[in-house]
Specification:
The chain is α+β, with helices and mostly antiparallel strands. Helices cover 28% and strands 28% of the residues. The protein is built from four helices and 13 strands. It has helices spanning 2-19, 24-81, 167-170, 252-255; strands spanning 101-102, 113-115, 128-135, 138-145, 162-166, 183-192, 196-197, 203-204, 208-217, 228-238, 243-250, 266-271, 278-288. The strands form three sheets. Strands 1, 3, 4, 6, 11 and 13 form a six-stranded antiparallel sheet that branches. Strands 2-5-12-9-10 form a five-stranded antiparallel sheet. α1 runs antiparallel to α2.
Length: 304
Amino acid sequence: MKKFLACTVATIIAASMMTACGSDDSKDSSSKAAESTTTTAASSAADESATEESAAEESAADESATEESAADESAAEGDAAEPKPISEMPATLQDLETASLVFDTSMDPADFVKTMNEANFENDESDVEFSIEEVEGVPMLRCQVLTLKDEEDPSLGYKVPKIQFDMSKIFAGKTDTLDKVFTIDIEFMTKAVGNFVADDGTESLVPGNFMGALCSQAGEDPDKLGWKELDNQISESEWTSEWATYKFSVRPGLLGPFSAVDTPQYFTFLRWTIPNQADFYVADITFKDEDGNVLPVSIGAHAE
């Protein structure tokens, strides 16, 4: 820029010197040309200066935004990387106060839940041990998956637990309302028991993947109950803390409505196989009619 202005001034001086011996008209003409050249040069210099300042400001703004974004991402990653203490778990349950079925320690799981077993656990089905266990003061149905794919090679993971809640037992004395069940909300907790071993050999006490399906097995004839996979596939995971909670909603009223009978029908959960040892817990279940009203059940802490 300085070089440009110096050349411009030199040109103006040279032009003045060349026209000094000419006529007055030439002087006027040269003077006007010089003024024009000077104005143009000054304008050009100002434009270039403004452009450089604008570019510098935009660059500074972009760098600032990038740094802020990076800082936000770093903070988010830092937060996510911090394991949450199990003491925070109860606050993450959304329906504990209003659910139809909330567990208590006096309950016997054998009265209302069982494991599907068609071939003595020789196919893909896993044996499951049920119990009522308090976790941070909250009684839950603990589902301990027992059956490995290969006893000699535990790294191959566990078979599929298929958990059947007997609706005729849960709604005992109220089975005339079963056909009103339109939506079911269920809250789970997953909790690591053994370490998850990553591909690179690193170990961490986390539950890992929690994937599966919610189904209904409904009808009047308990020997001919078909599978009706409901409108939600479970797909969650936890890789930082040793526990996690999840809430899922399904609508059997659309795809697999229950019949108003007192013979066995089932609300069924299947968890796909995982390689690590991790228990899952059912914290609560809420049954609602088509208008969203909570339907009462006959067992549990909120039984009517």
